[in-house]
Amino acid sequence: MNFGELLGYCMVLFVFSGIGPALAQCECPPNSVEQSILEAEQIFRGEIVSAKVAEDGSDTIEFVVKVDEAIRGNPDKHYRLYTGMPGSCGIPVQLGFNDMFVLGSDKLKVSNCNGSGRTPYMEYPLLATAIKLVDTPVSDARGTQRLLNEAFYGNSERALIDEFFGLVEQIDPLGIKAIRFADRIEYRGIVVLFTDGKYESVQIL
Length: 205
Known about the structure:
By secondary structure, the chain is an alpha+beta fold.
């Protein structure tokens, strides 16, 4: 990293660390995150490898992400992305920061309001699987079965799987709803079975 890059990155840290000007509260439109995720062309998880304040005077952070995992679409290996300052719902930008990025109609501009850069590490696997399930064709019962078998294990609590299907319904509110019973959940031609409140298996109806 040369001196110019270092200076630019220090300015990014100054803005997002709270040392700089007071951070205004970001308010996203209702359901903006869910709608953006549903309509996005590319969704991936990646690591921020460089960052600087944009030189065009637009109060924009410019940063490069190395893609680690594709969730939707066929993303490139690297992306040069842009985000606003915190008061305009920009995402936190730090070298080594690894999170989910959602690219839709704004192409290379990301924000908290489109679902980028806001997923706690422990919540990410559930959200990523929910997005993949939404993208799985309704007629593909075996694909749905395989996805759920990869995501959940014998010690998974019923509450976690109820939360998962809640995420699916938030992302795709007009899609097929899961039908919940005391010992099972039926969804898209498959049934998730439970024993003593824990995940047992997924079977095709």
